[in-house]
Amino acid sequence: MRRLLNLELQKLLLNKTSKILIFISFILPLCVILLSALKINVFGFFTLELGELGIFNFPIVWHITTFFVSLFKFFFAIVVVSMIGNEYSNKTLKQNLIDGLSKKEFILSKFYVIVFFSFVSTIIIFIISLTLGLIYSSYNEFHIIIQQMEFLLAYFVKLVGFFSFCLFLGVLAKRSAFALAFLLVDLILEWIILGIITWKESYEIAQKVQNFFPLTSMSNLIKQPFQRVAMTKFPSNSDIAYDYAVHLDTVIIVICWTILFIFLCYKLLKRRDL
Question: How many domains does the chain have?
Fold first, then answer.
């Protein structure tokens, strides 16, 4: 495992574009979170300080940070599809196989990088969220701090699942641009199927079916926190209540998709004449 991971990390670090995208995918979301914690003077009219709004209170801070940082996952998605695209365009895939790397090890090396990046990103989000919570939260009791830390697990599973999907599309399309285009096509198809089932049956049935789709299930892992923030400000308004929790069945669905994507990557590579 370590050998395959080191092999792939060396390839990424030797590529200037990949290094820039990895740097952006790590630094940019963290800068946004840290800047949101500062006092911002809006043209001298008023001072905006999100920390005073309670969004960095425990345990909601775990939800807020994981949701917003996950929106920046597209940057590393480009790195993932480029890992495959460059292998085909530079003919390094065939050379790796000639040098003794099996097709299974080739796919595993890519997957290990995905897991490694997702784990490091999760650790960083944990540190940032904990720091912001300790600074701004009105609650510092240990049992409150550790509440809802399952959002970190959901964030990790979401990243691994999404990047595994990108890896599969990269293997399928062989080109980075086509792989990203297929990602958009899948998103459109999921909503088209939702519309067809709603028209034929009902929206409730369509939504239950859509929850099993790859991108929708990944999105369901960490739902938007805006209604939750509104609930804390207007607790008497029951109309805005919604289910924001991380559910085990959604985690299992995404894990199943992840396993399927990696398996399909191997099968596609195994059948192709390189």
Answer: 1
pTM: 0.89
CA 257 vs CA 124, 125, 161, 164, 247: distances in Å? 25, 24, 7, 9, 16
User: CA 18, CA 21: separation in Å to the nearest integer?
Assistant: 5
The pair of structure tokens assigned to 40 is 């911002």
Give the mean pLDDT of the chain.
83
Question: Residue 199 is part of which domain span?
Answer: 2-271
Give pLDDT tens digits for 71-116: 888 888 888 888 887 777 777 777 777 777 788 888 898 999 999 9
Q: What is the pLDDT of residues 65-78, one digit of tens each?
A: 899 888 888 888 88
| Tokens of residue 268, six digits | 């596609």
